[in-house]
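::Encoded backbone::
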Amino acid sequence: MFDMTSSPSQLVDLNFAVPLRTAAVSASADSIESVALPVGQQMDDETFKQCHAATIVVIDDERATTDVIQRTLQRSGFTNVNVFNDPHRAISFINENALDVVLLDLHIPQLEGISVLKYLRTRSETQYLPVIILTSSDDEDSRLEALAAGANEYLTKPVGSAELVQRIKNALRFKQYADGIEDQIKSVEKELRVDALTGVNNRRYFDEYYSTKVVSHTDALLSLILFDIDNFKQANDNFGHQHGDDVLKFVAQLAATIATEQDFVARIGGDEFAIVCEHNDPDWPTSLARELKSRVAHESVLLNDSRHETTISVGIATLNKRVDDKGSLFNAADAALYQSKRQGRNLINVYSDAGAVSIGDKHLTQIPKLEDAETRIKNPRDGHILIVDDEPAISQMIELQLRKSGYENILVENDSTQAVEKIASLQPDLVILDIRMPKINGLEILRLVKDNPATENIQVLIMTSTTDDRIRVASLKLRANDFLTKPTNTIELDVRVSNALKLKIQHDQLVAFSDRLTQEVKGRTAELFATRRETILCLARAAEIRDMETGNHVIRVGHYAAVVAKQMGMDPDFVGYIELAAQLHDVGKLSIPDSILHKPAGLTVDERAVIETHCEEADRIFFGKAQNMEKATITSPLLRMAARIASTHHERWDGSGYPNKLAGENIPLEGRITAIADVFDALNTERPYKKAIEPSVCFEMITAQRGKHFDPQVVDAFLAAKDLILATRQQWLDASANSDTDTN
């Protein structure tokens, strides 16, 4: 839309957008050059520079005409003029290049110009490209057909060079103007769709996309992943808002990186994000969530050189017969997310018809039904109630009313100074608290109760005779659960007390679920971890046996890597992963011929080159890069780490390693750690072709390679953990080495 308040100087260049018919000019093609404009005439410097760089295409089957036009335009300052006598070759050029103006003959034997014009208007890249029609015919029907098909100008041959150049200038102004409008549209669309801070989609676009997807989804599974950053406010307060912004951008971009083209990532709140997944694979949303959770925890530790660790809590729900609209799908995912937060954060929960399902590293644990939870009270009438009021007559009246309603576990405290201590020691389910009391008022007691983690979940009913809204607002800010107005009505008292105790029962049930689930998850995780360890060790030993390695080499390398990672301050998940993943560092040797792998003597240059392919072979083993095979997707964070280690543990800090000559931090941290663990064990272990080197000498050799072969920080951590490295070595010595030690 044009701004009609613009000044005349701002609007003057819009006149060129009006198509004008050009009268026939009685000059021959050969006479065009004689009237060519001097370079830069009637053009300001800036416009001339833009014209000078313009890409112009001339399509005409008459070579003489195209030659003259090209020379004329070049003499007028246009250097990028491309002429074609074959329209098919012209179209190929157009498809591969960005253009500014096209001059098109209308009557070409091989392909009519009108067909070329219509083709240009069907492509998004050339939809608004200025096209000037050149023709020797003054047929009005042809002119109207060309204009209707989208021609910007219609020139009748022969045309004077001055007019031709000016028409092109006008077309270029139109192109510049159209491009500016298009850029503005894209900018506005981006502002409407993209979150300015994180670069992912914003809440407005999420609402639009999500609603459309739910209504129009196909047979593919439609899932919604909701996740937020744990303790984000605390991190923001402790490290500052800039750090908070960095964390938000980090998490958002990580989610966008992990997601596929079919996944829609959006920031829907302060630290809240959503991913809409439409996939045929029912396991994809949980796989995506697992990898995102793991990588956020692992990769955020060193964010901006800060040791603050970031974690996320995740909830997942899938559209089905019961969860069948956008509201219920969002609520289901939100309920699963809330369950993750209740269970201690840094967890994933999936919502199902039976309830939420907790997702561990590789297992599912069904949360028990609510009625199965063991809590102190099953019925609101069984709840323990404490009445705090300085007027004995009122507290006794309330107690009597409650007992008539069936409540039996009731205690009274008339001394407000004793109330907080009594609440902490008795741990009642509900406190009925008067506001106006001497010495210490009800609001102060409420604040102390809610600020204490041991009592914050006790239900509190505020009892007051005032109707002052400020009292109610202050009470709500301090997390009061409900209100009672003096004098109390028996029916209202019963209803409010019953509702409060029902909420307390539900809270206690969730706490019981969390405790039970924690124990169950620990047991199943330990069992799974043991199974996974055995599986990886079997595969590692397979590679080890083919290489005729010593029995415990892979185990030692894994333990050394874990020791170094822990010394560097990596989180427990990373340490646990690398201990197992590093054991697969030489799995690529499964593909190396026995004649080379088992050779007892030194290797030739060619044989060494074959050995060095084991890093690339490992990539094929993990990702299936065999010929005619699509690259497999690995969703397990553990196997992803193992793949990175296997392909990068022979890279060197200074870039002299193999297979890709990566250098510095371009080598994954796990690869840098495993490299030093592997070299240390290889140096101090006897092989058929060499003697073992004393550990003390090995440490010296590794120190000498600090900043060359090895990452300086990894070397420092390795040396700092020297005693533990030696203890680990002693614990996992091979049987033959132990025999030698005993003999000596």
In short: DSSP finds 28 helices and 17 strands in the chain. The longest strand covers residues 221-229. The longest helix spans residues 490-546. Residues 222 and 345 are 25 Å apart (CA to CA).
